[in-house]
Write a structure and sequence with these properties.
Blueprint (H helix, E strand, L loop, with lengths): L1 H8 L4 E10 L4 E9 L2 H10 L8 H15 L3 E7 L8 E7 L6 H8 L3 H25 L9 H14 L15 H11 L20 H6 L16 H8 L1
Antiparallel strand pairs: 1-2, 2-4, 3-4
Helix pairs in contact: 6-7
Bound molecules: zinc ion.
């Protein structure tokens, strides 16, 4: 009777035993209890009005779990009357699950592994989806092409990705030189560093070398101090 007492002491529902017969060694169980002032049923009735099914789900779950643990095998309680259905009190009956004709309908609620397995399944799916997203991000998303010329150029790009070789991309305006350059950077070993595009045509011819690679003091007229070029400054940043 500890379970019913606990339910009463917790203020959940006042439990009165109507009939209780059990034999732990034989595994037989029959329990019938009257529930007065069911908090769950009354609240459900107050909130949703009269329903066609019993409403004290969490309380019936407590009873099933407690008695199953106590008896050492699965006991299924059903609420045969419920204040949520319009009666004055609730009444529950518990028996060994096999003794209920419709036990299979309740099997999923009595399986202890379902939630844990579902969580593990979902976790596995999340890991797989995450890795799939990462894979996708590694692919250059803005390169699309199927022509033989494109595929040949792309094949060349893939060959140099793993190396430190200097690459010169040639082609008419609009063929995608910068897209290829960005893809090379994204797939290469320095992808975590910045990608820096410089328009060399915008720098006066005589100054290009000094701008990019820096200059030593006195290297030419007007070079009063030594300074780093764009490439060195960015190397320093990296
Ligand atoms: Zn109820």
């Amino acid at each position: 009777m500890t379970g019913p007492h606990l339910h009463t002491l917790e203020g959940v529902v006042k439990v009165t035993p109507l009939k209780l017969q059990f034999d732990r060694s034989a595994g037989s169980f029959y329990g019938e209890f009257l529930w007065k002032n069911s908090w769950e049923g009354q609240w459900h009735r107050h909130r949703y009005s009269i329903c066609s099914e019993p409403m004290c789900w969490s309380q019936i779950g407590d009873a099933c779990g407690y008695t199953s643990a106590f008896m050492g095998h699965r006991i299924l309680y059903k609420e045969v009357e419920c204040v949520g259905m319009g009666t004055n009190n609730c009444r529950i009956i518990g028996r060994s699950v096999e003794e209920w004709d419709d036990a299979t309908d309740y099997a999923q609620f009595l399986s202890g592994e379902s939630i844990a397995e579902q969580l593990i399944d979902l976790q596995t799916q999340v890991v797989q989806l995450r890795s799939a997203i990462n894979e996708k991000e590694k692919q250059p998303s803005d390169i699309v092409g199927t022509s033989p010329a494109f595929l040949a150029a792309y094949e060349l790009l893939l060959q140099v990705v793993k190396s430190q070789i200097t690459v010169l991309l040639l082609g008419e305006t609009g063929v995608g030189k910068e897209v290829f350059a960005r893809s090379l950077h994204e797939m290469g070993s320095r992808r975590n560093g910045p990608f820096i595009a410089i328009n060399c045509a915008a720098i006066p011819h005589d100054l290009v070398e000094a701008e990019l690679f820096g200059v030593e003091k006195g290297a030419y007229t007007g070079a009063l101090t030594s300074r780093l070029g764009c490439l060195h400054e960015n190397e320093a940043i990296q």
